[in-house]
Specification:
CATH superfamily: Spore Coat Polysaccharide Biosynthesis Protein SpsA, Chain A
Bound molecules: uridine 5'-triphosphate
Low-confidence stretches: none
Strand content: 25-35%
CATH architecture: Alpha-Beta Complex
Number of helices: 10
Number of strands: 13
Largest sheet: 9 strands, mixed
Mean pLDDT: 95
Shape: globular
Distance between the termini: 36 Å
CATH class: Alpha Beta
Helix content: 25-40%
Amino acid sequence: MIKKCLFPVAGYGTRFLPATKAMPKEILPVVNKPLVQYGVEEAAEAGIHEFGFVTGRGKRAIEDHFDISYELEHQIAGSGKENLLTSIRDLIDHNTFAFTRQVEMKGLGHAILSGRNLIGDNPFAVVLADDFCVGPGEGEDGVLAQMVKLYNQFRCSIVAIEEVPADETHKYGVIAGESMKDGLYRITDMVEKPTPENAPSNLAIIGRYILTPDIFDILERTPAGKNGEIQITDALLEQAKNGCVLAYQFKGRRFDCGSIDGFVEATNYVYENIYKKSK
Ligand code: UTP
């Protein structure tokens, strides 16, 4: 059972400056909901109810978002606006939220290691909220729910992957693997942000992971890699030596909300396909 989900949210979000000068990128709204809330909803839909956040300086708004605002609730109680808080109130009522800090920004691997005390000795999910994912259709499993089902079958670490154009491999960790069945690979190699010539495939890792807890000991001894950061891909490659790291070509769609273009695309998608339909 995957019971916990970790959100590394310590990054500076420099691509969104000046918007992210005083506000975390994860709180930027996609239409009317902060980016991070979509990620939490996706994980809750996958049956996860314990959330851990690895934050940094200037990220308090995330903690406040997942807490009750008595003054605001009192203010709008009984008005037609009360229902606008229903989605976040539901999350607060049915889940727990814990926070720890990544004191120095030493990369995604280091951020995940910083969350060790929130996770303990359990397999867990990781969501990078700036990858906004939607499932393949109404009533069908979201991306994390698809991965949890696979975990229950294989009991291995799993990364979500998608095909990217050759000229974009330098933005991602890229895998090589043996095909196990349609859309599922056993990872044999992984390169962080390769040039198209050095990329082992066009299958790029996106921000959804299920990790077995031995990843923490591996991260402890993983030296800084590309860009001087402790890379989760380096630790996963080490873990893959036991033959138990899978890559899953998820069903659905992913928007790179860490970039302006992806963020605008996601906003248009949510407005047309989710917001308007809910009216
Ligand atoms: P990114 O590099 O995409 O996020 O990291 P960023 O640094 O916030 O964005 P830019 O490039 O400056 O615009 C991917 C994810 O990993 C987290 C980030 O918060 C983001 O969710 N991260 C990255 C950490 O929590 N700590 C780190 O040291 C690095």
